[in-house]
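Reopening this ticket.

The earlier resolution said the output was attached, but the attachment link was broken on my side. Pasting everything inline this time so it's all in one place.
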Amino acid sequence: MMSTYNDIGIGNKLDWLRIRKLFIIGIFAACMVLVGDMLLGWGMHDGNKAGIEGFLSAYIGLPDARILWSAMLGFIGIPLEALCYFGVYRLIVPYSDKLAHQYRSGILGVLAFAGCGVHVPCLACVYVYKYFMQISPDTAESICVKFGLYFLLPGMIVFFVFWIIQHVAHIRAFAKGYTPYPKWCWMFCPAVGMAVTMLLKFIPETPLRNAITAGWISIGNLWMFLGLLIMMKKARKREETANFVREYTLGSGGRTAA
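Inline output:
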């Protein structure tokens, strides 16, 4: 018996109600993570410091409660976002087993590593730096860098490998017409929203700018879920029209042959 790439209990028929529900939950999850990111990012960097020290200078005065809330909102919200990616996976399944399989692999990697492997260790790194600056300012940076190399970098590398796999599959599926959406809807992938958000880095620094750019990934997810939800009505009409044409063509062929 031949196995298929998408044999995980999801059929080839599009379940629009479930996809819509996943996108709505995804919007909620992305907003949750964005709040956590903005709690962390709201602040100003010390212009007199450069490199890692300058980057981390914005976090020295953060209250512990903000660090904790940022960590917990991401800890819960990021896996929830990843689960809602299965709404996009369902769009690809009926059209391309191969791309659906690749996209699903990306989801599983993000689900496994994004929250506990990247987000929480980032917050732990901030916490370590904050308190070592109080104890030993001369060694705080080197200790924080070593902590990041040991406990943050491995998870970050693995996460981005899966993230790239997921995004390549996403863009290819939409751009090649392997979803019911118009091909130009490939732009509703998180990478586009992330790139646009990071353009804010070119404007003068303010606490709000830093808070928004800290949430670049969650804004990218929000861009994807909102865009695909808004375009869903048009996608459903396209699918219904395609099905009607297909059935009519098959029916006409059958009558002609008779």
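Reporter confirms the inline version is readable. Residues 79 and 111 are 5 Å apart (CA to CA). DSSP finds eleven helices and no strands in the chain.
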